[in-house]
């Protein structure tokens, strides 16, 4: 495995077209696009890494996987009255679909859906308390108490987050937001600003590759059925309107973030985190996707393979 | 396996809400909604069936899997200049997406996409020749020379097929159709009117469950990579704007038809065909989906399971 | 003229289907739907009225005519880089068009357009100053210093104005709003909350019926060309997606508000204000439209008549 | 008047940016873009012309005014169950609106609407008979029996008319077309191919400028109310998604065709035809619009003027 990762890393270093770093969040725009990292965790806990696997990056939308997991724990299937579970065919921040479907977001991974999920887990609490809960859960999953929120990124997002504010107010106009819009947005922007490195992220996603149970410690996070359902949503909607492309090329459930990270899970095999800040046109890590494509080619881990 | 199928069959017999038989094609509207059948083929060729597994039904959109396979064989990746590979988030016969994307269909399984695929494989031939080729391929896959087109259904579709005619002319107005629209539509409607039973259909799909090679005879139909890609398209787009729901509940690549059939593949395990004519609101077999959900529960065949 | 108005008023009193009072702004929801008023001002200053013509009502979107006039005075044709001048074919608060046209509102009379117009006239000022300017202009037009803003209505709008907040943030995300979104919204909601009666409103609109000059005092408000252009925008877009219907039935440039008022101008003839709180499905005063239809039938004032 | 027209003509000759000749109908693509003509008919029959006012051109969508008039005569207000009367905010050949509103076209002047209008007047007749009726009506209006259909243009349109075929089949799929689609399209394409010169066209539109009665002969074509309503539809929808712009700049009810003609009416004053083959981006005659703008500046004929 280490050889495979090093080969991929070497290959990625050669690539000159590395995509474009997200520029709409000023704090993310200044990240060096030449960075690359990948970590693979096997069920026995062995962790293989290559590149800048200890460098922290902003996980951004990957956080949506963790809040979705929390929300399903709190609301169960009732969550699906707040948010749908179909791919949207639209960009991550589209509002058109909301107007056509009376303010109900198509799935939990587009921005509107994730904002609705955050609202659904706040249960009358203040943003601080909700954030503490989310952060605690991520630390528990990764078994790492050092994971933190990057306040600078969070503030940068709040200042420039008009599009998300628009989505939240739009849903609120359909009575789909239970807490003050500012509170929900504050929580949303902060939980997108969690900083992790590839090692931590790969560990945090391990339960999804093993039917809901962390195979290292044997701790059950969610039921097998729920784990599979979260994975199916990742596959169907985890890369916005590039989800079909990702399924086609990589063939693993995955969730990307505009910070350049991708969390992917190979059921029964491994949890994988990859990071490279340059994005393709749709907003998914360009080299990250290419690296995963190579990894699957080497390992045969596609969920569509026999 | 026989016990599982019989249990599912018994369970399905009890269901009173069986959906609605497709009524926009007169010839399909008169099918008895109380029918149900399911067949499972294992890699050693063992075939387990329950219900009306010898009754022929109109495979309708399931035929799109076979023409996609032919088109990829003929055009390779060049096919993707004719048709995209993203879920559409729209109904199967929507034209809105076409206008927004200059006549290029979002994927090969919505009607517009399948019409474009049919056009791409005609290579200047007459409808008769193209149909002969498609039929030959399906017979080869199922290893059954008796498979035929139901002329009555085909004629019924042509007479009432204004929506598909609209889609085809729309694409033609963007110069995306190379043959006379009437020829393309004739071929399209006829290949949707292929009649098969569950046993035949399950056999025809077997290659997709085993990386492109029929495990009974060892004949390679497509490369492992192509097989996985076809499967990924089935998962992402095989049930129109109900694809997310199907992935969530069943967790297998599948393709439905308005005749009430579904072809599903469990990679490395089996090929499955199910048929029940009553459809849900989106146009997918209601009991068919429920039966597959039960089958996966019993067997654990979800592609998202470890 | 007095006979015509009294006849219309008598006719309107008989109507049982009076539409529905706007209920999304709590303060407006409690207005008595049985009220009706109409005022007609002729060029010599003669003012004919019927019904509750001294009762104040919330002019709501009719205020958009006055801010558009101010904005054209300040920015001239440069205003059209901020907002278009085509009918939208969409409801007054639709956001779909904004996404399709990169945040530029289709015309100054849909909500998004009016918010952009308000932003364009703030010129770095605080909401208070901008509101004072707008109010001063309306008082000048109506020659009535008693005209005021209803603070209760304004506060009620702010509290429930998520949809407009969504529109404003959406435009801000495209850098189309120059002032803090809260300031723009505060100004917008307050200027919608100006209270006027039919007499005042008819006087305020008089300049538009006489090529930009108030014929009573001979004061020129805008040039003839600008007056005609504002009138054309009222005809094309003044009743949202009911503008075609209004032009078809009434045949006069008009602007409606969800408070139940309509300002209409008969070029060269008169300025007309009508008010009845019940709205049709699209959000225009039901009896107001019917009364104008009758008035035009009696007077022949249609701009399409010889 | 002659001086005004000659001045406009001289001004237009100077213009170098003359727009682009419609190229999607091959037969229209070869028209010389340097031509220009304008005719004005006054109520006493005096006809003033400038430029190539005897040159025949394809009236294209201007024919929609005449079929609308026939349809209102046959169906009265029942026509509005077939077609709406709101501006669409979309291009002339958009299909998006049709899908959102169950196949009912927004107004009679977008292509889908005009196709529905043609279908509504066929009353079970063959295309030939319907065309004879339309042609007879246009000849009667213009008092000129020499007016003919250009068969070459008609055939050229049929061969390349996939977009209109798509619209017709789409409406047929909602059971909104009563005759065979091919018959309706044949009639539609042929009536768009009527050839007229500016003099003939200005005469044909005269009734609309005088409340439905031709003032030269005193023949009443339609009632005053109907005449005003047709005019209002021309103003609101006569230039597709450039209707707001035309109302803003010209201020007269008008209908354009992609052949480069525009028919405009100044109520109580005159009927005007203008022709210049080069089109703006939206598909309306570029110089034609500019010439009308100048004419209104000279005459003050805007319907929004006092």
TrEMBL record, chains A, B, C, D:
Domain of life: Bacteria
Binding site for substrate: 61, 111, 157, 164, 188, 240, 258
SUPFAM superfamilies: beta-lactamase/transpeptidase-like
Subunit structure: Homotetramer.
Family: Belongs to the glutaminase family.
Keywords, sorted A to Z: Acetylation, Hydrolase
Keyword Metal-binding: no
Alphabetized InterPro entries for the sequence: Beta-lactam/transpept-like (IPR012338), Glutaminase (IPR015868)
Reaction(s) catalysed (UniProt annotation): L-glutamine + H2O = L-glutamate + NH4(+)
EC number: 3.5.1.2
A UniProt-annotated Pfam family: Glutaminase
Top-tier EC class: hydrolase
UniProt xrefs under NCBIfam families: Gln_ase (TIGR03814), PRK00971.1-2 (NF002133)
Protein name per its UniProtKB record: Glutaminase
HAMAP family reported for this sequence: Glutaminase (MF_00313)
């Amino acid at each position: 495995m280490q050889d495979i990762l090093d080969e991929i890393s070497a290959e990625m270093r050669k690539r000159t077209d590395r995509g474009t770093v997200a520029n709409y969040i000023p704090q993310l725009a200044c990240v060096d696009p030449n960075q690359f990292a990948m970590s693979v965790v096997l069920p026995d806990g062995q962790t293989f890494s290559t590149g800048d696997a200890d460098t922290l990056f902003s996980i951004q939308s990957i956080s949506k996987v963790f809040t979705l997991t929390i929300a399903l724990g709190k609301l169960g299937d009732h969550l699906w009255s707040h948010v749908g579970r179909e791919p949207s065919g639209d960009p991550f921040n589209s509002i058109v679909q909301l107007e056509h479907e009376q303010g109900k977001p198509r799935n939990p991974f587009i921005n509107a859906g994730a904002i609705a999920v955050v609202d659904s887990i706040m249960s009358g609490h203040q943003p601080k308390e909700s954030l503490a809960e989310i952060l605690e859960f991520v630390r528990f999953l990764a078994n790492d108490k050092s994971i933190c929120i990057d306040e600078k990124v969070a503030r940068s997002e709040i200042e420039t987050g008009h599009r998300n504010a628009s989505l939240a107010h739009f849903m609120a106009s359909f009575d789909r937001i239970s807490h003050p819009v500012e509170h929900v947005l504050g929580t949303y922007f902060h939980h997108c600003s969690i900083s992790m490195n590839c090692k931590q992220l790969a560990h945090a996603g391990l339960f999804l590759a093993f039917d809901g149970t962390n195979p290292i410690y044997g701790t059950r996070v969610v039921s097998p059925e729920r784990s599979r359902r979260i994975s199916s949503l990742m596959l169907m909607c985890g890369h916005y309107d590039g989800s079909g492309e990702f399924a086609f090329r990589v063939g693993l459930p995955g969730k990307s973030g505009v910070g350049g990270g991708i969390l992917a899970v190979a059921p029964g095999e491994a949890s994988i985190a990859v990071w490279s800040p340059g994005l393709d046109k749709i907003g998914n890590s360009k080299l990250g996707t290419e690296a995963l494509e190579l990894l699957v080619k080497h390992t045969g881990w596609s969920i569509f393979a026999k």
